[in-house]
């Protein structure tokens, strides 16, 4: 079972690296917002995999709150960019 967790962590790290590249090299603001949202989602997923590896579910509420905060931040940023671009 440890092999499955290692492969999962490896793939999550690879996806995190690719989303960081997209965050740094993104063409527009919305690309960067989506890349940041994906990166935060990967952090939440890695935390959940780590909780599964340790068989400890004590951080579920913290992970849920972090995911909700990330979602609200992404939606707010996207709406702000949309309002700015409509004024141009």
Describe this structure in words.
InterPro entries: MrpF/PhaF-like. This is Sodium:proton antiporter. Belongs to the CPA3 antiporters (TC 2.A.63) subunit F family. It is flat, with a radius of gyration of 16 Å. Helix 1 (2-25) packs antiparallel against helix 2. It contains 3 helices and no strands. The protein has one domain: Helix Hairpins (Orthogonal Bundle), CATH 1.10.287. The protein has helices at 2-25, 29-54, 60-86. The protein is mainly α and 88 residues long.
How would the blueprint of this fold be written?
Layout: H1 2-25, H2 29-54, H3 60-86
Q: How would you spell out the order of helices and strands?
A: HHH
Portion of residues within helices:
over 70%
| Domains, number | 1
β-strand amount: under 5%
Task: Provide the CATH top-level class.
Answer: Mainly Alpha
Q: Got a strand count?
A: 0
Main sheet? Answer: none
How many helices in DSSP terms? Answer: 3
Please name the CATH architecture.
Orthogonal Bundle
The shape, in one word, is flat
**Any idea of the CATH topology?**
Helix Hairpins
Radius of gyration: 16 Å
- Give average pLDDT, whole number: 88
Structural class: mainly alpha
Q: What's the N-to-C terminus distance?
A: 54 Å
User: In terms of per-residue confidence, which ranges show pLDDT below 50 for 5 or more consecutive residues?
Assistant: none
């Amino acid at each position: 079972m440890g092999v499955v967790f290692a492969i999962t962590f490896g793939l999550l790290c690879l996806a995190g690296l690719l989303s960081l590249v997209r965050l740094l090299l993104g063409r527009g603001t919305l690309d960067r917002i989506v890349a940041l949202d994906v990166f935060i989602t990967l952090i939440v997923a890695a935390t959940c995999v780590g909780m599964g590896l340790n068989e400890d579910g004590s951080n579920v509420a913290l992970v849920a709150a972090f995911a909700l905060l990330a979602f609200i931040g992404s939606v707010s940023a996207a709406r702000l960019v949309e309002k700015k671009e409509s004024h141009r």
